[in-house]
Amino acid sequence: MVGSGAARVIIGSGWGLLPLPVVGPAIAAALGGVVYTLAAGGVAMAECLLFAFDMDPADQRPAVVALLAAAGITAVGVLACQVRARRDRELAEVSLVAEATQQVLLRPVPRQAGPVTMAVRYLSASARARVGGDLYEVVATPERVRLIVGDAAGKGLPAVQSAATVLGVFREAAHDEDSLAQIAARIEASLARELRDEQFVTAVLADMAVGGAKVELLNCGHPAPLLLSLPGPRAVVFGEHSLPLGLGQLTGAPRLPVTIPFGPGESLLFYTDGASEARNRAGTFFPLAECVTENSTQHPGTVVERLGDAIIRQVGHAPDDDVAMLVVRRDDA
């Protein structure tokens, strides 16, 4: 607006510069708030009045039209600013609800439970959401540590609902039940009441005594965790994988856990398929095992942070699928 006024003074009134000040309130409404828009509108209308005083009375109609246009655009801009401010407040409230939901569903894991050190990282596939269908939870008692990492099939609210059901049951059953198979059975019974036919949840459950040197694992159709030790990372070998949670009634076969040594200095990496199946633009999958090899001796917090950063570099943006990674390390005795 200042530039158009200066140009009119310098080069004269015959160059069609009169409508330019009207653009000011429109830009102000797009960039700022009510006060900023009113200030820009006031300057635009004052400039149009000055232009009108500088014109012959017979030629003042364009200036009057520009003045009315500036007033109208200012009024509409103020209304638009008020609507946008109301939507911003609503979005802030929704963000607070989403933050609270995340805190309820995906709580921070304990950093230490006896000789066991843990760390987790979650990458959401949606820039507008911080929680999705991937899930994790750790229940630590003075005697043992039990955990679950899983992935609910589907997207959006149905997947979040499935994840919430699994986590809620696990948090209770991990304290009450004697075995991982019993915990899985309780989760399955709850999911049978909640899920539709096409929904299910893949998961890996783990149970380790605080003073022991073994870990019991139960795989329910989920990617096998990686054991990080000095020879290099290797996938835990399960016999016959049981079906995902929510589909166990299709066969009725019992869910059989496996027990593996878990000595001092070794770590277990639990992850969802968003990590192993992350691809770049050329379609190349993320080399999870190779990346873990480079960081296997690091602290669990360092491992998950570097893995998450490497996945983002591989994809070039936020991952296309949610990623949950949990590292559990038994410290040296």
Description:
The structure is a single chain. The chain is an alpha+beta fold and 333 residues long. Helices cover 44% and strands 19% of the residues. Strands 1-2-11-10-7-8 form a 6-stranded antiparallel β-sheet. Strands 3-4-5-6-9 form a 5-stranded antiparallel β-sheet, with helices on one face. The chain is elongated and about 95 Å long.
Task: Indicate the topology.
Layout: H1 2-11, H2 23-31, H3 34-53, H4 61-105, E1 112-113, E2 116-123, E3 134-140, E4 144-152, H5 156-176, H6 180-194, E5 201-209, E6 214-220, E7 226-228, E8 234-235, E9 258-261, E10 267-271, H7 273-276, H8 288-295, H9 300-315, E11 323-330
Antiparallel strand pairs: 1-2, 2-11, 3-4, 4-5, 5-6, 6-9, 7-8, 7-10, 10-11
What coarse outline follows from CA principal-axis ratios?
Answer: elongated
Biggest sheet record: 6 strands, antiparallel
CATH architecture of the largest domain: 4-Layer Sandwich
CATH-derived topology of the largest domain: Phosphatase 2c, domain 1
Provide the gyration radius in Å: 31 Å
Tally of distinct domains? 2
Record keyword descriptors for this entry.
about 325 residues; alpha+beta; 2 domains; six-stranded antiparallel beta sheet; five-stranded antiparallel beta sheet; 9 helices
TL;DR of this structure?
The chain is an alpha+beta fold and 333 residues long.
